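From the shared-data thread, chain only:
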Amino acid sequence: MQYLEIKYLVGKEIKLELKQKYVLNGILLYLVSTIFVTYLAFENAITAETWNSLFWIILLFVAVNGISKSFVQESPARHLYYYTIASPQAVILSKILYNLFLMAILSVLAFIFFLLLMGNQVVNVPLFLLTLILGSLGLSSVLTMVAAIASRASHNFSLMAILSFPIVLPLLATLMKVSRTAMSSMDWSGLSGLLVILITIIVAVITLAYLLFPYLWKD
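Structure, as tokens:
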């Protein structure tokens, strides 16, 4: 039953996004313009370390802009309607899944634009793509939960930066370490510890969201 709820709620999110194309177009414009300005600033004189750092910083800001709207577009009347037809667990999981889908697309597009404008600094492409997937899942789960909390504080989304910082910082630092390895060698050895840390953070955040969101939902 919960699977069907999640399925229909994710479908609803996709339909809303297609209806409000200006939102997605605005995020894409922000992504492309930021990368282009970075390209103009460095004029192709960029090291692998700088390439890696700029990529994740830009992706983080894109994620905040894209995911912060998760609960903004939901009116109180719509929240009440969802409350009568779906479980809170289905609501939060559907938001995380949709934001994962959105972040995966934005991450791949960011990678493509970086390759086109900033040059290819990645040696181990499969490892970098795996890092993108884990990063998309991590950012979507963390920021979706924080957006849910902020929406209950009179939609004060300045709280997102404050509340998400303690979780996003170790997540982002670990992602940058793994992607740094992908930019230097084809060797996967020694990465098991970092990948375990990434997966542990992601699982912990999703579990907390699943357990704690019902209390926010009832508020």
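The chain has one domain: 2-218.
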